[in-house]
Amino acid sequence: MKIATYNVNGVNGRLPVLLRWLDESKPDVVCLQELKAPQEKFPEQAIKNAGYNCIWHGQKSWNGVAILSRKHAIEEVCRALPGDPEDLHSRYIEAKIDGITIGCLYLPNGNPAPGPKFDYKLAWFKRLTAHAKDLLSRDEPTILTGDYNVMPTELDVYKPEKWVDDALFRPEVREAFHTLVAQGWTDALRKLHPDEKIYTFWDYFRNAFGRDAGLRIDHFLLSNHFDKKLKGAGVDKYVRGWEKSSDHAPVWIEIK
Q: Considering only the top CATH level, what class is 2-255?
């Protein structure tokens, strides 16, 4: 089974790119973030015509998450991260597909830091960590994937010295990510590529993609049920080079 995550940065504006990638790559399950579309404007029919069932939680202009499945039915579990009923951001959706619990997340950016947006990011991280602990306690195959908006180590960022005060790289955020992983999750890309420079995001400015001045902020965290089943993991970097592409590239894993 091939599972992918992709921050599309506007599902309708990037729809030709998304459909082209789906046709070429043919992942079995896809988690999308940053739909930037209200619920009724999600391109459901185009996705279905491409061969995918889908569930989504949209939001006008911002955020938005979706899960697509090519072969298996999608059993929706929830469409909000537990812990704050007043949080109206569409940043989390969870489903069961072929016996696997899949959480698709779009963690807040948090800039400028310090400030209210950074506080919201840390609070969201705490809620995610609490929910992740609950998921692990159920002892079921589980995957948490999406745009975490954090570079865990200096290996995950081009010129880390320039990012020390950014909300994606501040010590509090990196510590929150490591605390989450320490519950018993496996960072899939790092398990298979422990020392490689791997990026998943390149800014539109200053020829960042051409210079390979990127960040690794899209992650797959796997429960221990996949310790011997993870067979591949990578980034479809070439998609970032397509015309009118997202500033993220699709990230994928293959499990037996």
A: alpha beta
